[in-house]
């Protein structure tokens, strides 16, 4: 049942309520930093028109939340980003790769039964452009073997000004939280099985990333995840944050050997990029 409640990086299995912003992590190991130039943008943002995670959806018999029409304010979703890490001061892309700090591990989904050792994971911080037109800093846990590739890909997304709403480490509470269907967190490592199966997901090894799940929903039969994201099934209406076949996002991941779930026949997993093919 846990697997049914998760929505691809959690969102693809019934997006849970957004937790309060985690504390700024204190690094425990020296971090390698890379930079690429991108000009900053200065904009003003109004109060968010939608509070993510505020309303729980009734559960279907299959355990997912009830699939509902997309609220009008989310049909062209451009919610502002809440900063929990300091944004890049100069508006340029910056990334760090380090061992997983103890405080980050404690608020992650890692536990001894996971199929990957902590030593085989890396903690990343990476700049990204928000839907609010401002540069922000996100965090991610990934497999050590793909850390440098991931920072390179997100550097290319930053240079292309591809917007991302949120990028943070998934918390344990999200694994069993009731579905709200409105999450949009970009994440990688989540210690969970494949949906509806007992074998571990590529996310459980830090070898898969879900990118803007609400803008790039998962579909299988009558299931749409996140459950409020049906408006984004119309891929002819191209909106910010969407991933499309052959676009710069797909090409950037393909250049480091990652596959895109949006090219799958069943299910179609538009948010999902994977280093393992699954």
Count of separate DSSP helical elements: 5
Shape: globular
Q: Describe the sheet with the most strands.
A: 4 strands, antiparallel
How much helical structure, as a percent, in the residues?
10-25%
User: Kindly, what is the distance between the CA atoms of the first and last residues, rounded to a whole number of angstroms?
Assistant: 20 Å
How are helices and strands ordered from N to C?
HEEHEEHEHEEEEHEEE
Q: Into which percentage range does the β-strand content fall?
A: 15-25%
The whole-angstrom Rg is: 17 Å
Number of distinct beta strands: 12
Runs in which pLDDT lies below 50 for 5 or more consecutive residues are 1-45
Which class best fits the helix and strand makeup?
alpha+beta
Widest sheet: strand ordering: 1-2-3-4
Q: Whole-number average pLDDT?
A: 87
């Amino acid at each position: 049942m846990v697997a049914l409640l998760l929505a691809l990086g959690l969102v693809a299995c019934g997006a849970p309520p957004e937790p309060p912003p985690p504390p700024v992590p204190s690094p425990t190991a020296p971090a390698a930093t890379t930079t690429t130039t991108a000009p900053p943008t200065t904009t003003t943002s109004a109060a968010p028109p939608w509070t993510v995670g505020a309303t729980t959806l009734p559960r279907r018999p299959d355990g997912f939340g009830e699939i509902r029409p997309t609220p009008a304010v989310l049909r062209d979703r451009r919610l502002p980003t809440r900063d929990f890490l300091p944004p890049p001061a100069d508006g340029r892309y910056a990334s760090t790769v380090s061992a997983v700090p103890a405080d980050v591990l404690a608020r992650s989904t890692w536990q001894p039964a996971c199929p990957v050792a902590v030593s085989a994971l890396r903690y990343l911080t990476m700049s990204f452009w928000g839907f609010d037109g401002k540069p922000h800093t996100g965090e991610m846990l990934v497999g050590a073997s793909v850390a440098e590739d991931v920072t390179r890909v997100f550097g290319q997304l930053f240079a292309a000004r591809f917007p991302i709403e949120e990028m943070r480490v998934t918390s344990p509470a999200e694994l069993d939280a009731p579905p709200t269907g409105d999450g949009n967190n970009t994440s990688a490592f989540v210690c969970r099985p494949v949906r509806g199966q007992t074998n571990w997901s590529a996310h459980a090894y830090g070898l898969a990333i879900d990118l803007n799940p609400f803008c790039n929903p998962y579909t299988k039969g009558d299931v749409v995840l996140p459950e409020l994201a049906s408006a984004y099934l119309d891929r002819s209406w191209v909106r910010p944050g969407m991933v499309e076949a052959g676009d710069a996002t797909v090409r950037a991941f393909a250049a480091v050997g990652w596959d895109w779930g949006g090219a799958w026949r069943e299910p179609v997993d538009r948010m999902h990029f994977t280093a393992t093919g699954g």
